[in-house]
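Render Translin-associated protein X in 3D.
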Amino acid sequence: MLYSARSLHRLFLMAPKPKPHRLHQVAGTSLQSPVKRVRTMTTESSFKDAFAKYAEYLNDLNDKRERVVKASRDVTMNSKKVIFQVHRMSKYNKEEILEKAEKDLAAVADQYMSRLVKELQGTDFWKLRRAYSPGVQEYVEAATFCKFCRTGTLLHLDEINASLLPLSDPTLEPLQLNILDYLLGLADLTGELMRLAIGRISDGEPEFAKRICEFVREIYRELSLIVPHMDDSSDMKTKMDTMLQSVLKIENACFSVHVRGSEYMPLLGSSEPSSFLLGVSDIEL
């Protein structure tokens, strides 16, 4: 059948036309598919790179945590040795014992605290606080213990941080002990002072025990005003209960000497009479 030009034109106009999006799909399949594929591969690659960086960061953080835990454990162990050294003190060897303890404490700072400083300075060291806090608390306890036995005064946080500055790299942010770890170490100090006070009474130094009692009372009084206002104070509240027990033990020991002073007997070998049988009055504190 033959059609005229006008008929063919009419048929063409009446014929259904493909939808634009289908025409786009048919005409652009060979051009757009590679573009989409490249875009997908680029996205997957960026995700892999990001996860690789996160994995590397977490692995480095875990490795650092292990090193910090090891250094903290060494600080704890050697700080305890300093505390045990101080407990060997008596009125006859006080200077010798304290010199040895202070030398050992300086060695703890140079050999072990310096490792903590090296690992933590210049970083967000608060993220690893649980890893190094036990060692720091023990170091604070040993340092304040030595200072009290030497001068009868308290070693402050600013003094401890100043002593750690020479261990830090001056180009990096220095490691500074926080107030919570300092107070936790100070709470542990009262337990050591309680043991020291009992020992001093047994060795015939009730006046020294009295000074310890007054010092521990002051620490407990000050902390009892601070702790209720602390945000993270669960550990501190637990130690406050232990601290109160230490205060009561020192007070009871000093009170017993005061009330029953006429029955107090010196160490064997002492030439100082202190018994009512020898005509000496009660010991006054």
